[in-house]
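Input record (one chain):
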Amino acid sequence: MKFITKNSQKRRYRKRNADILSDSEIYPKVGLVLNLGFHLSNRWVSAVTAYRMNAMIKELNSIIIQNQKDYDKYKDDLDVIIAGEPGWGAPNIKYVKNKPKLKYASMSDPHSKTVEWQRYFLENDFSYTLAYYYNPTLFHLRNIPKDKIIHWTWAIPDQFIDEKEIKIRNQNYILIFGATKGEAYETRNWCKSFNFVKTMNYSGVENKVLTDREYFKWLTQFDAGIAAGSLDRKYRLVVPKYFEIASAGGLLFAQEAEDLKALGFEDKKNCIIFNKENFEAQARTYLANKEAYADIRKAGRNLISKRHTLSKRISSLKSHIASHL
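The corresponding structure, as predicted from the sequence alone:
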């Protein structure tokens, strides 16, 4: 059996970079700033991120930039830069103004290193930020012009959207899972105090025991799941669980957040939106009549397949790039 090492994969990507640069038919030339070792080891905490990065590499014909030396080497030949978050899956690069003209900076958790990230964005003359969370980014990154913030949120790999008929298993509980340490999970932990909430100790941050593929298969076993973090104004993030639970055909109990409406999540139409005042009543009503929620579950899954697949997300980025070059 032939084993492929990370070093051999890196050599393959370097050759791929050269091939893309020399191919005059590939336009635009896109540089993706990425810690390749981090990516190849799949150290991402979300089950969808590795697929997102692979799609950006493949579908955009991206040239991989792993360090300052790579950027300095390629900058004059690039039309676009898409930079991962420095210090988290990507190196910290010092960029030259207008090299290239169109530069995107990724942003996940806007409450983290807010001052440093804004300085990084402004000093390096980024054109736009690709924000996983729109309203929280507006709230925290107040020095970044609103028209520079693109809501480029989570997306489900097309192959992981469950297409089987919705099953009603008559489970007498609602599933909750994910990280628990820190104030960002205050509401998630509060939900666990109810005896009808079943806690599973699976977390991409704290206890990643399933592969990404196994995780999506595991999710299809449950009738309903809770996506929650914190109701505190500085968090209120529509995290991957919102999309993942719905994509698996489960009834999504969605902690309220400002981004939900723009993403198409509607209370009692394709999910159940809750806060601390109405959570118990909403949950007990569901548990007393699970069959009545089958259409909401179907509508939730349809929302993901129509608006939040990875192929659609990549297509939207391609369109934005094309219209701004």
